[in-house]
Amino acid sequence: MRLKASGEKFSSRFLTDFKVFITKGNVINLAVGVVIGGAFQQIVNAMVNGILLPLVGMFTAGLDFSKLFIDLTVFLAPERAPDVPLLTAEAAQGAGHVVINYGTLITATLNFFVMALVIFLLLRSFGAVGKKVKRGAKSADPEPPPTTKTCPYCISEIPIKATRCPCCTSRLESGE
Q1: Rounded Cα gap, residues 55 and 48, in angstroms
Q2: CA-closest candidate to residue 56, choices 113, 8, 104
């Protein structure tokens, strides 16, 4: 019976701790960040795959870097090399050859730089829009005129229209 009681306390405490963990702001903020990050990823992918990579392809004359490879079998074991060179890395690997796919590294590196450029441009434009919005909000909300002033005799804060200080009863001139 004693094990059961301590087990009940553990499960009750566990559930309570779990509820507190789930309802904390950090977990909810993380969940919102993941959802927004997924949506942002779709924007970036659409821009990269739909706009920038076709432009890069146009400048590289349609060259697909991912198909570039070196067949090491030709160099290391010439007796196993075929008479006709294999045209794709997959064909060479299928024939049992050792292949270095350096083209995939080039493609991944280009994709990284293009993605980084897109993210930089998007964040920079979001920042510029945010600054314009902040500037517009500042100009729309001018600073309100002061409603209090300081008594020159007792240094207490008093209403701006007061002609006598309520703290020290000193008479104030209208310009003070």
Answers
A1: 10
A2: 113
Check: CB of residue 65 under 8 Å from CB of residue 103: yes
Calculate the alpha carbon distances from 76 to 91, 98, 101, 137, 142 in Å: 18, 9, 16, 70, 78
Gap between the Cα atoms of 105 and 67, Å rounded:
11
Highest mean pLDDT among 81-95, 132-146, 154-168: 154-168
Q: Which of 166, 137, 136 is nearest to 154 (CA)?
A: 166
pLDDT in tens, 127-157: 888 787 777 766 656 778 888 999 988 888 9
Both tokens assigned to 84: 């006709």
Q: Do 172 and 151 touch, CB atoms closer than 8 A?
A: yes
Counted residue by residue, the chain has a size of: 176
